[in-house]
Amino acid sequence: MTSATQDPQKPAPPLPRWQGTPRYIADEGLQATVNVAVALGRPLLVKGEPGTGKTLLAQAIAEGLGLNLLTWHVKSTTRAQDGLYLYDTVARLNDSRFGDRDVRDVAQYIKMGPLGEAFERAATGERVVLLIDEVDKADLEFPNDLLHELDAMRFRVAETGREVVAGLRPIVVITSNAEKELPDAFLRRCVFHYIEFPEEALLTQICRVHHPDVDERLLAAALRQFMRLRSIPELRKKPSTSELIDWVAGLRLAGIDPAKLDHALPFVGVLLKQEKDTQRLGRGDWSRQAARR
Amino acid sequence: MFTGFHAMLRAAGLQVGVGEWLTVVDALDRGAVGPSLREFYAVARALVCRDEGDFDRYDQAFAAYFQGASLPQPVTAAVQEWLDNPLQRPSLTPEELAALQSYDLEELRKLYEERLKEQTERHDGGSHWIGSGGTSPFGQGGSHPTGMRVGEGAAGRGQAIATAKARRFRNYRSDVVLDTRQIAVAIRRLRRLERKARRFELDLDQTIAATARNGGDIEIVERPERRNQARVVLMLDCGGSMDPHARTVEAFFSAMKQGGGLREVEAYYFHNAPYGELYTDLAMLQKKPLADVLRSVPPHTYLVMVGDGWMAPRELFSPYGAIEYGMADAVPGIERVEQIAAAFEKRVWLNPIPENYWGEATITALADIVPMFPLTVEGMVQAVGALMGRGDRRQKIEKRSPWPSARDLDFDW
After folding, report:
1. Does A52 touch chain B (CB under 8 A)?
2. Rounded Cα–Cα distance for residues A37 and A193 (Å)
3. Do A32 and B34 count as a contact with CB atoms less than 8 A apart?
4. Of the candidates A38, A183, A192, which has its C-beta nearest B46's C-beta?
5. Fold type of domain A4-195
6. pLDDT digits (tens, 9 = 90+) for B290-345
7. Ranges in chain A, pLDDT < 70
8. Where are the domains of chain A?
9. What is the rounded CA–CA span in Å between residue B156 and residue B243?
10. Band (B71; pLDDT cuts 50, 70, 90)
11. Predicted pLDDT of residue B406
């Protein structure tokens, strides 16, 4: 394991402490964790329920530190190589016949992937935030294939023999929905943060950030209903923060009277996405149970 | 710095190596942690824990070190053990067992219905009424050589002859995440790569060769993509003596469904032994005739059966041996297994119980027909190897049971 103290890279100029952004509210623990990941130059692995703002965190870090953000959306077919670079053989083949470019220059057919680009920018002294989104979507071996590159912050382009070395460690944020388990060797190298579902006070604060001029009575009533929904243990998919924000937006647009909210759930489709949840809620299965509790 | 905390973390059961601890020290060294305990709490947690499941242990260790609380005693293991074996099994001597009257299945059903009419209250212990923990032929968790289990719960002697209502509705969910990784990696080896004209990829070597032949005029050559065409039919034993293994089977099932990258996985369920009909859902409400299942199997499909194979011998060897209420089959389960085996060239049986128990008559009989492997990661690797035709590397199973193999039995029921 490469300890950060034996880092071959030159020390990065100190970045300001990250303290969240006006639109992204981070508690003390998250702030400290992010700052440590930045200081140690280790990837920050973020897990948490869907809709708790894992992806937004990377944007907020970039914004808060005044850096550019590169995003690598991982899909089920993504390979680790795609993140480094792609060698466009077809373009070269085509150029050999029809093009006017010099096909002997292989370098022009090498296209950097997000990770490769982050390294290249770092080589020129620009530190970026790289978001590797939903790392668990890819193949089981995907994280392992990235280990060396994330550790050493360098890789070699086999076709040209050029070595790409990141002079500064980019800030890597990796999100996971825990669809697949990640390998131990990978986890050991990451700084781990689990975004817990926010408490009611923080939720209120978050809603105010997104809806600054919201009617207080409406917000309070909406939150009451929202928390009640979330407290139903039988729910197949609990509504998340992002869904609450959308719901409040919908309620405001439609001009719903806050007093009515206690007895009805308008636009329930914004909050509940599973057909079974909606059906059972409609039949009143849970309100009766809640009354008994 | 805080080395005592490191020791405490390890005492709490977190796997914190020296390397990880040095990272924490390094973070403190660099002044990356503010002078507040709350910040230290968050940072050390981020560096030491790898999963939110570790947080609880971390909190215990943190409280123990910084607030002088004591680490909780590991009672969980003991409690877990009770939960795994929820009912006391009275151990009876063979003489006592023999003294209890044995019934055949028909008699038993009749008696059960009669007694159900007479009984008006709950019973635990006794030898006559329907209850639990007793020696009456009816009830659960009790000891009777040919008893009938009523309702759900863990089986007592593992040999209940009939289950009138015992059904585990607990689904072997395909979204369980824990522990599936290793299994999924093992299943990865199960592949049948074939070129199917569905998606095409560029065949670079052929393209260059063709272009060269063409005098430099580009000729693109494509070839169908290689994809894993492996199909698997799963047959899972569930309920009864399989209940203690539900978690393992769940992990296996989810790995099979989502992690294996297989083309198709079809699952069927049975209780103890397969009979004339298999269930297509875990609730055991939908049935499909075994003959239909076997007829529709595409060639080169792999068969994976999962079950403990542990049951009363007559459930496997006798006609009408099924204990599932409403499942009557004149053909003994063992012959059904032979029919299944005949339909699949490549087949394995995964058994969740440890190999030293495999001497039981029913298990050896099944292992004779379907090669049996333990339901462990190691066993899975061997099983996949066997499916892929890399020979059978199992050790011979030693027969410890007085029961002869199924084939030598000459039943006259």
Report:
1. no
2. 10
3. yes
4. A192
5. Rossmann fold (3.40.50)
6. 888 888 888 788 899 988 888 888 888 888 877 776 777 888 889 999 999 988 88
7. 1-14, 179-180, 282-293
8. 4-195, 200-292
9. 12
10. low
11. 46
